[in-house]
# Entry
Amino acid sequence: MYKKSFYLTTTLPYVNDKPHVGFALEIVQADILARYWRLTGKDVFFSTGTDEHGQKIYQKAKETDTDVQAYVDHYAAEFGKLRSALDLSYDAFIRTTDKKHIRAATEMWNRCAANIGPDGPDIYKKKYKGLYCVGDEMFLKEGDLVNGKCPNHPNMDPVEIEEENYFFRLSRYQDYLLEYLSHEEVIQPQWRREEAINFVQQGLEDFSISREVARMSWGIPVPGDDTQVMYVWFDALTNYISTLDWPGEDGNFKKFWVEGETYQMAGKDQVRFQSIMWQAMLKSANLPATQHVLYHGFITSGGQKMSKSLGNVIDPYTLVQEYGTDAVRYFLVRHIHPFEDSDFTMERFKDLYNADLANGLGNQAARIMKLAQDNLDGPVELSEESGQLQKPFCDLLDQYDFAAATGLIWEHITKADGYIQEKKPFSLVKSDDTRQEGKEIIAKLVEHLAMIATHLAPIMPETAAKIMTAVKENKKPENLFVRKD
# Structure
């Protein structure tokens, strides 16, 4: 039977500091999609990694008197730890310092440079003077500024820079990008697609894709010019296909990028990079465009964007150590909006942990399985339906509405609590006259619990597995979630 291939990637976090909960949101959303697709029979390639070149990293390493390669090795390892901390199921972890990525970025440069239109090649050299945001590693237009600052880094002053760089002829692709963006499926949510269209309609300017080695040496060398290194964005964006072993045209690249369904996940501040610059680069190199880009909102703290530069980040490792992996995964997808900004406080996290997990799911699983252990002769023979994902749940995940899909599971948890209180199987099994009826109700509850575990599998995989083990062994599980005072 033919299995449809699905490719899914996160953005690559910049390794100038430790991971924060904002990136944890993105990679957990991606992991849930990958697990869900696998459960529905799709062949999935899920990729993530680290972005390791550029001026910010170079400066940070020098500030700490650390060799730059050693610096990026350290922080790449910090991001690599997310795999176990968040129970991630990715298939590849690409680093932009990997040799295969450097080969791919070099090939991308050469293909774009070889693409010559009526106004010249897509890559050309010129002198440029402008305001540069070190935080975003990009030049800013006057229209980008808010109170004279980059809107993404309001605590950093843009720097005026004048130098000779290579430029990518983005202006050539205005009509192509408008046609590409006219298709609703290429960006979710739709207001981000409208944002991208508006940006392109305002007129596209060619953008700088190199930096002088004399000013910033930490980057991939420009082919044929040892005085320049590639601009970090041109280099990093190529990871989406270098992880598939491109420029090899067969194997994973053909299966997942050319013949598969391609998805990228990114934060809302990435629209111009992922859906404009990157798509123009792909077109220039005569490669297929990304079919879908999903943009999530920011996790805020006290109404402010959570970011390293603002110093208000929350460490996902600390959360996992205190509350456990699945509690963090649950909160990120149930109580953080999939597309809008959402505020995060430790007080809210703790309250919802106790209400939804310790007193909710955990208490219900223990209660049902204690009744089953004490009153049933053996494990319940489960129906085929209990192991299948139901259409309403699938429909919500197909719309990338992680919060609603998870909320649907909790609706069924609430219904089961009501059913227990209505039928009172714990009382029925105490009487000879009603014991059989009580046992039948308990068996139904066990079946219901198994169905809940089936739907939890892509969202809270460890918890789902523990519940299914308890069901199959007809035993009360250890406390799934310990209440926090």
Residues 5-296 form a domain with the Rossmann fold fold (CATH 3.40.50.620). The mean pLDDT is 94. The chain is about 45% helix and 15% strand. The first strand starts at residue 5 and ends at 9.
